[in-house]
């Protein structure tokens, strides 16, 4: 049986214009890929749509990339101890959301964990794939842990000012892709495109309907199952004014001395998460929040993550890898309501 998740309200009156067809574009950004589908009668505006999409993606990279040395974020990370900086608008908005979630999740989500992310080989350098790379020892872990107190940023949302306390490395990679998806969806709306499906690096947002009057359906990615176990039933989501993000422990990870090390780091222990959560999917109207919450809940682990998601009314699906290799699914109340 397929599980089907649909939003409370489908606005069937707002169907695409008669004669509209689905158009598509794809490209690369943020070390990953993007694609967009939209319903349109006008088949001549591919170039204008691509330009609008790329302008939004380029803005996010220029402000928030950890990989681009010239980004505003990279320059903040290199800035002198004690210096105060006025951040550009999008960067400040994303940082404000990230700091809110850092407080709400008691540090499970931490935008100031860049030094830890780097030292585990998931930042710009060194990469865990580099020859001679070794994970951090205790001394290095302690040093990285000391740099990640987000409160020392003394961020003021009104003036968009933040302090570089010295050695604090911001990393917005768990939230910026979601924000990019939201920006692209809004840019499309600005072009009069109300019916679209936007994807950046696995984060998705759907608006309106397809030309056939159906919502944009997507299937949630299922984590790999151990031999001898059957996968959980597929879950299909109607992305009608909804976004979805899935964090998994199996996609970006490496093995070291028999340990599985995924790219979600628990900033409280300083180590990659290891509590057997195979994936967490979050549905939210905003892709920014779906993206950030999926990482926060992954780091929190199933039990603490469930409690946190319930406390905030978050629609989440947890897939836990049990000791025998089987997968067990748990839905929050908000997610169960979408499942009818
Ligand atoms: P996923 O799809 O698995 O959620 P994301 O790309 O959204 O992956 O987020 C993972 C990235 O977030 C990591 O590569 C790292 O840069 C950063 N990150 C890792 N741990 C945390 C954390 N606890 N809080 C915030 N960001 C983190
Ligand atoms: Mg994320």
UniProtKB/TrEMBL annotation:
Lineage: Bacteria, Pseudomonadati, Pseudomonadota, Betaproteobacteria, Burkholderiales
Single Gene Ontology MF annotation: metal ion binding
EC numbers on record: 2.7.1.180
RNA-binding listed as a keyword: no
Family under the similarity heading: Belongs to the ApbE family.
Binding-site list for Mg(2+): 174, 291, 295
Coiled-coil parts of chain: none
Originating organism: Hydrogenophaga crocea
Sorted UniProt keywords: FAD, Flavoprotein, Magnesium, Metal-binding, Transferase
Cofactor: record remark: Magnesium. Can also use manganese.
Name of a matching Pfam family: ApbE
Protein name (Swiss-Prot/TrEMBL): FAD:protein FMN transferase
Reactions catalysed: L-threonyl-[protein] + FAD = FMN-L-threonyl-[protein] + AMP + H(+)
Cofactors, names only: Mg(2+); Mn(2+)
Major enzyme class: transferase
């Amino acid at each position: 049986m397929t599980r089907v998740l649909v939003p409370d309200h489908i606005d069937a009156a707002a169907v695409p214009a008669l004669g509209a067809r689905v158009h598509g574009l794809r490209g690369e950004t943020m070390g990953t890929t993007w694609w967009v589908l939209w319903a349109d009668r006008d088949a001549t505006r591919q170039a204008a749509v691509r330009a609008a999409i790329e302008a939004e993606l380029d803005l996010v990279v220029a402000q928030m990339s950890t990989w681009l040395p010239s980004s505003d974020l990279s320059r903040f990370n290199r800035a002198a101890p004690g210096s105060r900086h006025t951040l550009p608008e999008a960067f400040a908005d994303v940082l404000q959301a990230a700091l809110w979630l850092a407080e709400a999740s008691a540090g499970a989500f931490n935008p100031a964990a860049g030094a830890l992310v780097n030292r585990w080989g998931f930042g710009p350098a060194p990469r865990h794939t580099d020859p001679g790379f070794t994970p951090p020892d205790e001394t290095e872990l302690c040093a990285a842990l000391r740099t990640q107190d987000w409160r020392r940023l003394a961020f003021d949302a009104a003036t968009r000012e933040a302090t570089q306390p010295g050695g604090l490395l911001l990393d917005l990679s768990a939230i910026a892709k979601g924000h990019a998806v939201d920006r692209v969806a809004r840019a499309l709306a600005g072009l009069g495109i109300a019916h679209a499906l936007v994807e950046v690096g696995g984060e998705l947002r759907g608006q309106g309907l397809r030309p056939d009057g159906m919502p944009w359906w997507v299937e949630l990615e299922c984590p790999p199952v151990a031999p001898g176990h059957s996968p959980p039933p597929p879950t299909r989501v109607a992305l009608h004014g909804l976004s979805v993000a899935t964090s998994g422990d199996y996609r970006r990870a490496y093995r070291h001395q028999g340990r599985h090390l995924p790219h979600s780091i628990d900033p409280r222990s300083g180590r990659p998460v290891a509590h057997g959560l195979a994936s967490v999917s979050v549905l939210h109207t905003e892709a920014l929040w779906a993206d950030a919450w999926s990482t926060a809940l992954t780091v929190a682990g199933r039990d603490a993550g469930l409690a946190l998601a319930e406390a905030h009314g978050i629609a989440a699906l947890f897939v836990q890898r049990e000791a025998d290799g089987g997968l067990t699914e748990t839905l929050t109340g908000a997610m169960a309501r979408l499942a009818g």
